[in-house]
Amino acid sequence: MRENVLDYKLEDLNKILQQSFSENWNRPALSDYKGITLYYRDVARKIAKIHIIFKECGVKKGDTIALCSRNQANWALVYLATITYGAVIVPILHEFKASNIEHIVRHSESKILFAGSNVLEGLTIANMEGLLSVFCVDDFTVVYSKDNRVKETIERLNELFGKSYPKTFSQDYINYYAPENEDELAMINYTSGTSGFSKGVMIPYRALMSNVLFAWKVLPQVTNESDVVSILPAAHMYGMMFEFLFEMTVGAHVHFLTRIPSPSIILKAFEEIKPKIIISVPLIIEKIYKNRLQPFLSKPGVRFLLRLPMIDKKVKGQINDTLTASFGGNFEEVIIGGAPFNKDADAFFHSMGFRYTIGYGMTECAPIISYAHWNEARVGSCGYSAPRMEIRIDSKKPTEVPGEIQVKGANTMLGYFKNEQATKEAFTEDGWMRTGDLGVLDSDGYLYIKGRSKSMILGPSGQNIYPEEIESSINNMPYVVESLVIEDEGKIVALIYPDFCAASADGLNVDMLNQKMKENIDIVNEDMPNYSKITTFKLMPEEFEKTPKRSIKRYMYQN
What we know:
The chain has 18 helices and 27 strands. By secondary structure, the chain is α/β, with parallel strands linked by helices. The chain has a five-stranded mixed beta sheet, sandwiched between helices. The protein has a four-stranded mixed beta sheet with strand order 2-1-11-10, with helices on both faces. The N and C termini lie far apart (about 50 Å).
């Protein structure tokens, strides 16, 4: 397929998947680490069965299907079955609180919800009006249905499958939905769960296909003989695209780590599976650098050796060999993205020739914006514009003075679902998408990110943390006038200006007020996913500095 890339259009994702399943019929496709393995023939057969369920549930082309569970092979089956049926997939991070998941299901107007058993325990189906059916994705049992026929369908599924395919199910029976055009909606991916801040990013087929074609070009080493370990949340655009969807189009074997893994578990999986490509967030690489390399590098004897030109090269070469082996030794490169990378680690890894690169993207671009292969990468940069994408800097001197990074091309979203105002604000008058990030482009087109003009904080694994959500909850707490949530050395910190008058009137001294605020923070944290929990707080002696519009001047407190 890759050899005939020019034969494909940007709406041809399902066509590519159909061909890949057929050509790789007897190859392994999806595995739960230390668990089941499905071959491509199994994937095709199970997709056909899910299509029968969709039909019996009354799902039509363009209807939305919500999917919320931990990473697992069955998650991938539902995703693939949805887009190949012509429905719109709505992946939801399983780390979201129940109320947030319920909001997204309602807002997306989903007809069916597939959720893991641990997710279902906290959900109230009555809060998700509009649902026709709810399934446990772990085993596809029916949890709820408006129509009794759905349970009957599950009970008779093998019989119905046999009637639909009276002969042995083979490659000839695969016939997937063909989108009418490249701008047809394929997926809605929510950047947040809370009702006041959730934005459903509308991803068209062209954006998914353009990212697949990008991966075809830059990762030719990943083939139908390759293994890949999926360690990032599958519902997050970065992991979804480059640890799963791209691999399905080339016949690779994806291994899902079905629990949130520690770096040690990840490295053990790498050692056993020996993946061909590694997709990572900075947290994992930085922990390895801090826990395994820095103690060694800080030894006086090693520091002395690293100052000697010839020996320095030899020592770094040995470190590189050891580090490469710890990642399985078979990878083409480690692609780091999703959050800023530690500058010291970046410089050191680059100096020793470790095969890694830093990419830049966002959900709204499904996700890739810029990238450079590891042997073209430059320290501090996240590469140059990806194929079919353009980058410009909103600055009079874009090579010197940072300005907003703006992008245009096939990867960009259609807009935000049912949010015309946010969509309008996301694009310039001449059609460029605003990223909200600040950067410069050098004379060779390499992008250097200098900061974030939006208030969004990137969590350790690339999760989007929106301070306004947390502040909204804090501000509803007793004795709080206003608050500001910032990031400080990787921690989420709440700056709080309390209502001193009310506290005094109630007989609270400073120590008692601090204790009350601690109780407030504990309550707020109960409704936050782990990556958004407030680590510590500080009481401010006076109200925050404001703009003429009475908005807090965030930049004054960020550092």
